[in-house]
Protein 1
Amino acid sequence: MPASYAYLGPEGTFTEVALRTLPETATRELVPYVSVQSALDAVRAGEAEAAFVPIENSVEGGITTTLDELVAGEPLMIYREVLLSITFALLVRPGTKLTDIKTVTAHPAAQPQVRNWLRTHLPDVTWESAASNADGARLVQEGRYDAAFAGEFAAARYGLEPLETGIHDAENAQTRFVLVGRPARPAAPTGADKTSVVLWQRDDHPGGLRDLLGEFATRGINLMLLQSRPTGAGIGNYCFCIDAEGHISDRRVAEALMGLKRICLQVRFLGSYPRADVKPGDVGDPLPGTSDEEFVAAADWVARCQDGRF
């Protein structure tokens, strides 16, 4: 397997900045790809060891392109996550004034994060989506658009100037990125972990989603993301992308997944990996009755009952 990480490029994206926070990148070749799909396909094809892509932001929620790519196709697995605080700069060619701007561009996920700023400062501009924020900067450099929303750090790379900086509609906005590779044994639990799965119902019936969520609730497992995505099989057909607290080696998580496997048409395991938002020592104890020790004790009691030793 090549010692390289694919990422959503080109150079100068927030994705690249977040990726470089991982210590192991010092020993990896970092290769930009034009889209999330092409970065993930590079892993599937064996061209890259892993891919690093955005999956969620705190303003709009899940990045649907990434979720859909993980839902479909050859299975992949999440191994790490990184959180990055996001503020935008309005990048322009030297000499451009705010009144000169008629067209702006950026990644679609950026628009909800600067919508109010645009309404106030550039209400009449035309918005065009780019493959990434850095790609938008490249298109401005080429003269295709007047301005791009991107990281201020991308300005020098593309010969642009930051006309405005610190742009954001929501304070403390963050984007979550994940390192995705081919399926293998998950890393050992840290005590502050997250498990990601995709669930397909057997059929559409009243209380169907409640049944799925009940497998987590009865075992005291908190959910951190729940997003429905269309399956492509027609209107009203959805699968559910879920992030849950805990590791697959935790008894409560393993039993929840076994329960889901019994009642779902399909379950896709996307990995158990360390959380980026908390440290292991900051995670509270499981709810009463849901610790590994209590699951073991309960299983032992059932075994003794079966043996007539209760």
Protein 2
Amino acid sequence: MSRYFRRAVARATVLPAALMLVAADQPPAVPDFGPMLERFAYPWPVQTMEVDIVGAPAQMAFMDIAPQRPNGRTVVLLHGKNFCGATWGSTARALSGAGYRVIVPDQIGFCKSSKPRAAQYSFEMLATFTRRLLESRGIPRATIVGHSMGGMLAMRYAILYPAAVERLVLVNPLGLRDRSEDGVPYTDVDTLWVGEKKTSYASIKAYQLENYYHGTWKPSYDRWVWMQAGMYQGAGRDSVALAQAKTSEMIRTQPVAHELYRVTPPTTLIVGTLDKTAFGRAQAPANLRKFLEAIPVIAPRAVKQMPNATLLTLDGLGHSPQVEDPVRFEKTLLTVIGARSR
């Protein structure tokens, strides 16, 4: 096997009994999953591709899922900022069952991938690494599906490599609005880093409950809170917090809002109508926060600026429809990508 790729078989993650017995109103004791989720199981074997970051090697993790009955097409699933490749598990299983080869990367700075301290994050960098990964797997063209921050990355990928995109699917994407135009001030990395160091199971769950799941919590969501919080528990928590701070700045300072006309592949926006996400709200002055429009309000205007895009809404769902209602989301996604682009 090439030195650029390594395979790590996912080990079973056994959650402590304390997590199951804790009272509903008390935050559980979160396991230390490691800064690269070393002790958190993914649904398929994880491989890594080596990349260089400021002269030092780094590892980009990914899953490459082969279908039993291939249809000759590939779908790439790009995670959001508060998500990981594992969060796409149900979606990937449905796509694979329908004959698609599925590539699920963890971007540099996230989840099972390296979090190099010297990294200067940009969507161009992440898109370039994603393109390199697909080329190394012999995939010249694919359908690109991006959720939340992954939607921003998917749009940047489509702008840089339009001929390599068969179809683009954006699920509740960020970046459709330039928050500086809304009066949200710039927040430097050091300030964001201080905030990220305070991340806890309770803060993650509270944010997701309010913004992603419109006040309704299901036990199945807990796994993804444990996953994210578990990266902050051990000795590597500082590197995780710094990577999260830098990528927050990336999202804030690199919107796609002014370049939507450059997103030329056939595109579908899938938006949960109850999504309350307005990135930058936490850094906005209190008297401005209520005026920041959430994704369902912005999306209808944004889709009109794209040359070949349509909007599909999922009534009653929030920011993460693939988690909130996997069956409904997967049926919708398979319908959307079933028609080949011309």
